[in-house]
Design a protein that fits this description.
This protein has about 60 residues and is an alpha+beta fold. The chain has one helix and three strands. It comes from Filibacter tadaridae.
């Protein structure tokens, strides 16, 4: 089975950005893009930011 040409990798909670990049490289992908999204939690009817989701778009290295 062949790998996808592009794939999104999310930095897991408790994982550093560097660890995520190393995981991407180990799977044969290089960084082609990045996006960040805030993650909110509802507390007493208000939305409070709890952390930032960081995702890297990886392209398959030839």
């Amino acid at each position: 089975m062949s790998k996808k040409k592009t794939m999104w990798f999310e930095v897991a909670e408790g994982e550093s950005v560097d660890d995520c990049l190393k995981r991407m490289a180990a799977e044969g992908y290089t960084v082609a893009g990045k996006k960040e999204e805030p993650l909110f939690k509802e507390v007493d009817g208000e939305y409070v930011p709890i952390r930032q989701l960081i995702k890297f778009k990886g392209t398959l290295s030839e």
